[in-house]
Specification:
InterPro entries: NDK-like_dom, NDK-like_dom_sf, Nucleoside_diP_kinase, Nucleoside_diP_kinase_AS. Belongs to the NDK family. Major role in the synthesis of nucleoside triphosphates other than ATP. The ATP gamma phosphate is transferred to the NDP beta phosphate via a ping-pong mechanism, using a phosphorylated active-site intermediate. GO terms for molecular function: ATP binding; metal ion binding; nucleoside diphosphate kinase activity. The chain is an alpha+beta fold. It has one domain: Alpha-Beta Plaits. It has seven helices and four strands, in the order βααβααβααβα. Strands 2-3-1-4 form a four-stranded antiparallel β-sheet. It is globular and about 35 Å long. The two termini are 18 Å apart. The structure holds guanosine-5'-diphosphate and magnesium ion. The site of guanosine-5'-diphosphate has 10 residues, from helix 4. Guanosine-5'-diphosphate binds next to helix 4.
Length: 131
């Protein structure tokens, strides 16, 4: 069983998509093992997005993630990391397939509803940051 760290970002919470997002994981047979609605701090986001620290969009990304509450979850299941990435869809809304969360709901590169870990190493690192 794999565990992956999922975040419903502030735009997902603002738009009332918490239930929609969670139900897509549940319908796939994945289990929600932990789930919290919190306000992310700058400190936690700096750790979480360390790989993007030098990117031009970094400051905007961190302030967007602090705009309002986020839902942080641990999602578990067989191949959960790749399954959740598939359910979420590609980062860019123009590339995210219809039927994915981002394909169906996102229209901005930054504001794309959800985050999910991209590997076993990142899932372990991210879970230890948030839980
Ligand atoms: N404005 C802007 N934001 C970006 C860009 N690339 C990524 N982001 C934001 O930064 C987050 C992290 O980027 P990345 O790890 O590459 O994508 P993810 O793993 O699909 O979420 C994305 O989900 C977006 O919110 C970009 O080129 N421009
Ligand atoms: Mg990423």
């Amino acid at each position: 069983m794999e565990k992956t760290l999922v975040i419903i970002k502030p735009d997902g919470v603002e738009r009332g998509l918490i239930g929609e997002v969670i139900s897509r994981y549940e319908r796939k047979g994945l289990k929600i093992k932990e789930c919290r609605l919190i306000n992310a701090t700058k400190d936690i986001l700096e750790q979480h997005y360390i790989e993007h620290k030098e990117k031009p969009f970094y400051e905007g990304l961190v302030s967007y993630m602090m705009r309002g509450p986020v839902v942080v979850m641990i999602v578990e299941g067989n191949e959960a990391i790749q399954l959740v990435r598939n359910i979420n869809g590609s980062t860019k809304p123009t590339e995210a397939a219809m039927g994915t969360i981002r394909g169906d709901f996102a229209n901005s590169v930054t504001e794309n509803i959800v985050h999910a870990s991209d590997s076993i190493e990142s899932s372990e690192r991210e879970i230890s940051i948030w839980f």
